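Record pair follows.
FIRST:
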Amino acid sequence: MRTIYVVTHPEATHHVEGVVGGWHDSQLTPAGIHAAGSIAQALRAQIRDGSEVELFSSDLQRTRQTAEEVAELFGVKPILDRRLREKSFGEAEGRPQEWLDQRFIPPPAVGDRMGHDQGVPGAESNTALAQRIYAAVDEILQSPCEHQIIVTHGFALTFVLASWIKMPIESLDYVIFQARSGSITTLREDDFYHSRRLVSLGDTRHLDSAAG
């Protein structure tokens, strides 16, 4: 039985600075580093000692720092993959959120929502985002490893989950799986039916207990 744990990185500097994330290479804040430790402990509590574990991560600093906390507890080396990055917002990245808000063109209610031009030069379409994340997840699933951990970003999470349930990219127009920063989403595939379950979405109990 395969279990995948999809982690969204915790608080990063772009969150508290009010600037656009995307490929802007922000770092975890002190609170984010503490939360990353809690994420690692929560994963360690779920995966029995001696289990084979693989760890994959977006290559941006905030996800890499999160993955490093996990790697230390499990004694594995993170496999960095730029295809697991957040959506690119082009020229908006690193600028104040207000800069993007003033220029952003929302997708139409009907029509080509996935390939929609958002009005920001260099911004990535949802189709392009989906294609690269689907390719990364497909490659990860080629390994028979029983426990796999993927560290990614909040918006990217939707496309990781959609790939897992084999949703066609052209059917993604209206789909959002929303989870807080620092969350753990658990996926499981059984060996008999080969069905793929979404066991839990965006679990943050580890953060609440750490804060307490």
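SECOND:
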Amino acid sequence: MLDLHQYLESLRRESPQEVLTVAEPVSLNQEVTAIVKALEAERKLPVLVFTHPVAADGRPLAYPLVMNLMASRRRSARLLDTDFSQVGQVYARRIRERRVEPIVIDRDAAPVKQVVKRGPDIDLFEFPAMVHFQMDPGPYISGGFLTTVDPDTGIDNTSLQRGWIVRKDAIRCYLTTYSHNRWNFNKYEAKGEDMPVAYWIGHHPLAYLGGQARLDYPESHYAAMGGLMGEPLRLVPSETFGRDLLVPADAEVVIEGWLRHGRRYPEGPFGEYTGYTGPQIPNPELEVTAVTHRRQPYWMNILVGGADNHWGSYAIEAVIYEAVKPRVPSLQAVYLPMSGQARFHVYLQLHDPNPGDAREAIMVTLTTDYRVKHVFVFDDDIDIFNEQECLFALATRTQWDRDVMIFPNTRGSALDPSVAGVLTTKGGIDCTKPPKTAWAERNRVDPRVLEQFDLRRWVSAGQEAAIPLERQ
């Protein structure tokens, strides 16, 4: 049975250096953010467990906070039994080929039902929700999956969507325009009805990866989660809605309630995935009717706009790979780098491309996800996971009067601060060598020399470690 407790125990046992427990009191008002960002600047992404979080008003809180659970692409690769470069492709194949239907268990067997609170007992401020950045108006849920059902079919949908805790029993939720949860909400509003919803927070990383899958509408995320986990996701009826809204039995926390129709409230601003503060937006409010959780739950959080938000790109890489590969068989790999906030930039790697492959790959990629803004296409002698290599190709293999494609008035992200209104300009650059033509050879060391090479003959490990790192 996979859950967050089981995963952290196994990670501590098998790779203890990847779990950092912070036992000193830490303020949830931006101090946690500062710690995460300082480690990230050193390219260190351990899972962080804060055992003594302190609310913004100085109150010590009882439940631990978990950060960076999903921050490491290397850890995600291990979970998917692959390597760093193949995460997107393996994710795509697993989501396409493996679906395991969930099972429903009795509430007495569900860890998330160990504590049940209703009415005046509900107090969302007992959980270590963070104020992430200086413009945030208060504590936010950023690592919670908001779950709804399509009123026409009863099929579930789950999506990471931010929620501002404005009162002990109320959350203002940002349902992004193109999300399936927004489409479900639109249907309820058209009928003049409130929408049943539940946030679930904290689970095994494979469950989180499955919850991010880009699926058809309507299509169940619960089966996709089970497919990645390799076992049925255990579900349990919600307290408020029963079997009409099932929730993960092995989650850490579940927050249930009604998303009220026909009313909007100021929500935000919020430090978003773009690396900028997203604007205040009129959004609906969730009236909380019940909270259930484990006796000692972990509160799972994601630092949006940092490495901990990068894992959401795997699903986009998967969609792009599945869309482009049938049209451009020379496609080898897809990568959404953090330099593009893991959403705006896409790097494609092609093997021996035919004339026109790069341009067609650019056009297909730009239509797969509205947030994708720029596409760069490289030969397979360029390591697309090394941006120094990518910039080398951009510098030496492109002529922009020939290799740049520009598409104005296309659908973009409303959170992109450079967008005026709802339309953006997208583009791509063909950074491949002209096909079937002679091209200058790259500088390389003869492989016969490298076979005999051992740096330690001349430079000891201690000497190398003492050499200061330089920015390049």
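COMMENT: The two ends are 45 Å apart (CA to CA).
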